[in-house]
């Protein structure tokens, strides 16, 4: 067969390398995380913007109250992790599609994953170490709540 002919349908493909197919798992992750993110984000938006008093309820005390319960901490951390990994994987796909130089592509992909890892670490620390009483002065509105 020459290079200007098309293989007949159902012709076996040339043998592929063995091992894990990271592109396939990345594709599967994007679909699964996308579905989970839709549920998590719409739940987040409903609780924050629709339920209760709507957007008027969002203030420091609302956030402090949410982060006082492990359920909302884990909800937000899972949403953060899925969104950042989903976004970094999407950007990795764009870099792989459009950056032709292998060295530049490698540097950009590493930079994407390092930025995502840093933001995941920072966001997780903020959610789990959030202390509404940190830095409260005696005359502030939170002073009565934080003296206990």
Automatic annotation (TrEMBL):
Give a single Pfam family match. Sdh_cyt
| Keyword Repeat among UniProt keywords | no
Which InterPro entries does the entry mention? SQR/QFR_C/D, SuccDH_FuR_B_TM-su
Instruction: Tell me which UniProt keywords the record has, alphabetically.
Output: Heme, Iron, Membrane, Metal-binding, Transmembrane, Transmembrane helix
- List the subcellular locations: Membrane
SUPFAM superfamilies, per the entry? Fumarate reductase respiratory complex transmembrane subunits (SSF81343)
Keyword Mitochondrion tagged: no
Q: Which CDD domains match?
A: SQR_TypeA_SdhD_like
Write out the transmembrane intervals. 26-51, 71-95, 107-130
- Under which name does UniProt file this protein? Succinate dehydrogenase hydrophobic membrane anchor subunit
**What is the source species?**
Microbacterium rhizosphaerae
